[in-house]
Amino acid sequence: ASTDTPFSISAKADHNATLQQSLTADHLSVGVGASNNLGFYASAHNGGALSQTFALSHVTADNAPADGVYMYVSSDSGATAIQKVSINSLSAKHSGLDGVGEILDVGGAGSVGAQYLTLIDAALEHSGRNGVYASAISHDQAVARQDVYVSGANVSHAGTDGIEVYSAAFDGASMQQNAYLYNINASDAGNDGIAIFNYARGEFAFAAQGGALYNIDVSYAARNGLAFGSVAKAADTEQQFYAYYVTATHDGENGVSIASYADGAATGVYQSYPAHVEQDIGVIYGDISHNGNDGVHITNNISGGAALDQSVFLYGVHVDSNGRYGVSELSSLQQAS
Question: Which one of 12, 255, 278, 298 is CB 3.0 to 4.6 Å from 291, fit for a cystine?
């Protein structure tokens, strides 16, 4: 195909305009473009309001130079943008970048953005970067939410991560990101099998992240099978996930990696508020053995008067025959000067 994206739908709402857009499609086969094979784009500015809803089934979008399916939402200057994409039965194998990629970017006071992905029965193996990539950023006092629901997906042999879920809030903004990953094959990843991280920085920014994982295989990753991380710098983060029936064996470093970092304080009118991370991770039933480093590896770094509340719950998991420890924990605390 000569077009950048052979199947592309976009909408823009500006200057207090209101726009709604929807599509239903079945048995869709998309040729190879110059970049992404399928693209969904939404942007709202200057008080505009935009809503997109797409429901697709039996979609083939293999061999994309960039993403097999790409979703993008931006909202600023007091606008609102909402995008909902549901795909039942997708083949987007051998993508140059991501099998499915979604980006949410919301900025400015009064701006709101939300993005929802539902993906059921997906063949996304052998992606050049990630099988599924979900990124959400909120900044400058905006409010944003992103939900990722994936069930029955093969994201094995990804160049980087089988699935990467990332969210961030900056400078007084608020972010809520939810991820539900069920029946996932994320083995043989070039980096981590599944990586889930959130980050907040500055002026009371807040980033919350939560969800559940069920029946996941993250074995034979070059680094970690399953990785969680939460970082707060003069801000506040929360991360709460439970993973059930986890197979994380023969990973290059750790079967499960859990990390946190908190530093500094946000200065209010009358007092300073310490940066804070709350992290609650549970792994229930599974095999976390024969990994190069540790079965479960926990690291925490707290400095500049910041605070951490962390709980790690392990039940019914095998952590034997790892290169170093079955479970290890190392926390570093540096007092504020």
Answer: 255
Contacts of 80 (CB under 8 A, 6+ apart): 44, 48, 49, 50, 111, 112, 113
d(CA 253, CA 242): 21
Using alpha carbons, select from 102, 100, 116, 9 the residue that is nearest to residue 59: 100
Q: pTM of the entire structure?
A: 0.96
* Nearby residues of 239 by Cβ (< 8 Å), 6 or more positions away: 196, 198, 208, 209, 210, 228, 230, 277, 278, 279, 280, 281
How are beta strands 163-170 and 132-139 bridged, if at all? parallel
3-state secondary structure of 235: coil
Give CA–CA dist 322/208, Å, rounded.
32
The residue with tokens 């063949």 is 123
**Within 10 A of 334 (CB to CB), how many other CB atoms are there?**
12
Q: How far apart are CA 185 and CA 296, in angstroms?
A: 20
Size of the chain, expressed as the number of residues it contains: 337
CA distance 44 to 116: 17
269: left (phi over 0), alpha (psi -120 to 50) or beta: alpha
The SS3 of residue 190 is coil
155 phi-psi bin (left φ>0, alpha ψ -120 to 50, beta other): alpha
The answer, yes or no, to whether residue 1 has pLDDT greater than 70, is no
Query: Is the Cα dihedral 177, 181, 257, 103 positive or negative?
Result: negative
CA distance 7 to 329: 48
pLDDT band at 135 (very low <50, low <70, confident <90, very high): very high
Examine the pLDDT at 66 and tell me if it is beyond 50: yes
Q: What is the mean pLDDT of residues 169-193?
A: 97
- Between the alpha carbon of residue 185 and those of residues 125, 164, 280, the distances in Å are 9, 14, 24
Q: How far apart are CA 269 and CA 287, in angstroms?
A: 50
